[in-house]
Amino acid sequence: MSDVKASIIGVGCTPFGNVLETPEIKGLSPYELAVMAAFEALDDAGLEPKDIDAYFIGSMLTHTSGLYSWYSQLCDWLGMELKPGIHFETACSTTNTGLGLAAMAVKSGTFKKVLVLGCEVLNSVPQEHPGKRKPVDVMDLWFWTDFGVDQAYSYTHAYDIATAYGAIPALAYAKKHGLSIDKLEEVLFHIASIVRKHASMNPKAFVRKTLEEEAKELGYKDAFEFWKSKHNPYLAWPIRVRNALNVVDGASAFIVTSPEEAKAYTDTPIDVLGFYWSVKNYPWYGDPTSWYSDKLAFEKAYQIAGIEPKDIDYLHVHDCMQTYWLTLSELSGYLPKGEAWKAVIEGRVAYNGEKPMTTSGGRHGKGHAFGASPGAEIYEAVKQMRGEAGRRQIIPEPEIAVIHNHGYGMHTAVTVLRRR
Amino acid sequence: MEPIISKFYDYLSQGKIMGMKCKDCGAVTFPPKTACTYCHSRNIEWAELSGEGKLLYASTSLLPAKRFVEYSPYVYGLVQLKEGPFFTTLISGVEPKPEALKALFEKLPVDVVAEIKKMAGLDIITFKIRE
Question: By percentage, how much of chain A surpasses pLDDT 70?
Fold first, then answer.
């Protein structure tokens, strides 16, 4: 086991939604929301706060949460006062990066058990106290979010996230593989349909309705007609709003220890075989289907983990725009080049297909709680590998899972997990 | 250390598009930084760019940058400059509508030329599709 960097022995994740509206998390401040995920992870591992040696808290948007220095503000809520704690971020790859940081910490022998916690409250801003909040203005939300993208030149040149991150790579994929815009639209519909199907089976997802159910409610017999209707406008042509993220509030957590100790806490440790990070400033691409920074991160993570793409049983790629179900499933080597669009139409990337992806519902269905989202995907992968994913369980349980996240703008984090 | 960012925008106000040329590998870094984007050398110097390039992809969105709301909807696209670097900015010469963008997509890449315009209070680079 000397090649194993660390093992995950407990996971937690809150329902994703809006603390002003979603029943399961309504009225929670960032404090309680974070603790909810952390305590679930402790309970999952059968641990108490005193058993944790250090905690790494990831959160990105201070403007909406209304706090930084999460380490001190949460230490006594977590029951971890006087322990080493930090606040860190790599935007929307934060908690994937946190797994790497924790793996290095336990591998070095510095700490035996590390709690990694991600929390993001994005839909509201604090008023008189952190639990009393008012809805955020969406233009302000994106103004603050875009602080993560090249302010020197790109933001001043009308930086447009939905076109830059969604439309351009989608158009480039279509051009590269000879897909007409009409065919691309059909492919994007099928991705969204799979995303919604997965989310409908995830009790912690933000959107619980399938596309087909939504179409029916609005009087459409054919879900694709609904897809192309005024009810689903272009966010950035040819990307429609249901191909994009839903911004949510949420928290995720996991506990990492050494591979040797892991068996004492769980029958099914999930080993971190390898991880790698690569960073690129905007614009992230030459050919917008071939992100070199992503290619590098996948290749190095596989090399460190000692795996090849054919070994991967489950893949999550960052899908705040669903374009990446196409481009990154191919770049990762999970699907053959030029084949992802066919695999999507044939349903092969659904939970019950031969090449399952992102069974949580991803950034549209489960929702996107920026820094907490990678932890939610690690939670999902761990649940799948343990056989605890309920109605959306992949059969047989995946042995090797790869988790990819993009953090503005742009930090690529890739982690390879293995069920022991 | 000179204020690179301020100087870049001052140059634009004078009608000049400036980047950095690497004295080691010869590549042009654009917009200007303090190291070569390609070989990472710090041995670089200011160089003027032609303003010519090719538009590779373009679209329009419901989520304009907050500072550019008054110009929305606008077409935003990826351009490869004649000197090599990629840049994204506002594109003129095509309507910000799906039908027009689809017709343009069929023709891409097309030649574009830089137009310096004062937008959101700053002289910036936009590109115009050549007839």
Answer: 100
| pLDDT score for A290 | 82
Q: Tell me if B57 and A168 make a contact (CB, 8 A cut-off).
A: yes
Residues 208-237 of A with CB under 8 A from B: 233-237
Q: Which of residues 37-66 of A touch B (CB under 8 A)?
A: none
- pTM surpassing 0.90? yes
Q: What Å distances lie between residue A165 and A266, A319, A321, A375, B92, CA to CA?
A: 40, 10, 7, 22, 20
* Closest chain B CA to residue A143: B66
The band of A2, judged by pLDDT with boundaries at 50, 70 and 90, is very low
Distance, in Å, from the CA atom of A54 to the CA atom of A104, rounded to the nearest integer, reads 13
Question: How far does the CA of residue B93 sit from the closest CA of chain A (Å)?
Answer: 17
Q: Which of A141, A146, A149, A160 is the mutation pick for testing B, counting most B CBs within 10 A?
A: A160
Containing domain of residue B19, as a range?
Answer: 4-48
Q: Is A144 in CB contact (< 8 Å) with chain B?
A: no
Report strand pairing: A411-419 vs A400-407: antiparallel
Nearest CA in chain A to B122: A156
Query: Which residue in B88, B98, B124 is closest to A164 by CB distance?
Result: B88
Residues of A whose CB is below 8 A from B80? 286
Q: Residue range A11-37: average pLDDT?
A: 98
**Quick one: B40 and B22 in the same domain?**
yes
Domains of chain A: 6-147+246-262 (3.40.47.10)
Looking at every residue in chain B, the average pLDDT score rounds to: 97
Find residues 79-108 of chain B whose CB sits inside 8 Å of chain A: 80, 86-90, 98, 101-102, 105, 108
Is the domain of B72 the same as that of B117? Answer: yes
Number of domains in chain B: 2
Alpha helix stretches (DSSP H) within A108-180 = 138-145, 161, 168-177
Question: What was the pLDDT predicted at A285?
Answer: 84
How big is chain A by its Cα radius of gyration, in Å? 20
Model pLDDT for residues A205-251, shown as the tens digit of each residue: 999 999 999 999 999 999 999 999 999 999 999 999 999 999 999 99
Q: Quote the CA–CA distance of A361 and A381 in Å, as a whole number.
A: 12
What is the arithmetic mean of pLDDT over A96-102? 98
Query: Of the candidates B36, B25, B21, which has an alpha carbon nearest to the alpha carbon of residue B83?
Result: B21
Q: In the numeric block, which tokens belong to residue A209? A: 């309705």
